[in-house]
Amino acid sequence: MAGLLEILEDYQGKVDAAKIADELMLELDDILPAIEAAEMLGFIKVDSGDLTLTDKGKKYLAGNSMQRKKILNQVLSRTGLFKWLIEQLKKGGNEMSKEELITLLEEEMPDVDAAKMVKWIIEWGRHALIVRYDSNSQTIRLGELA
Amino acid sequence: MLLLELRNVTKSFASKSARPFVVLEHITMAVDRGDFVCIVGPSGCGKSTLLRIVCGLIPPTDGQVLYKGAEVKKVCDEMAMVFQSFALFPWLTVLENIEIGLYSKKIPREEKKRRALKMIEMIGLKGFEEAYPRELSGGMKQRVGLARALVSDPTVLLMDEPFSSLDPLTATHLREELVDFWLNPNVAPDSVIMVTHSVEEAVYLANRVIVLSHRPGTILKEVPIDLPRPRDPRSDKLYTLVDQITSLIA
Amino acid sequence: MQPQAEGLLTETLLLLSNLSYSLLRQFTALILSYLFAIPYGIVAARSRRAESVMLPILDILQSVPILGFFPVAVLFFIAIFGGSRLGVELAAIFLIFTSQAWNLAFSTYESVSAIPNELFDASSALRLGRVGRIMKLYLPSCVPKLVYNGMMSWAGGWYFLVAAEMITIGSEEYKVAGIGSYIAEATYSGNLSHALLGLGALIFSVVMVDLLLWAPLRDYAERFRYEAFAAQEMGQPTFYLRSLKWLEKRLRRPSLPTVRLRSLEKTKEIISVVYTPLPKVKAYLKFVRILSIILVAALVSLTLLYQYGEVIKSVNGFIKSLKEPQFLIELNLLPQALFASIARLGLAYAASLAWTLPLAAWLAWRARAAAFSLLGVLASIPATALFPLIINVTIHLPYGLFLTSIILTMTGMQWYILFNLIGGFRSIPSDTVETARSFGLRGLSLWRKVKLPSVMPALITGSITGWGGGWNALIVSEYINYGGETYTVLGLGSMLDKAAYELGNLTLLLIILVTMTSTIMLMNRVIWRRAYHYVLDRYRFE
Question: ipTM of the predicted structure?
Answer without folding.
Answer: 0.91
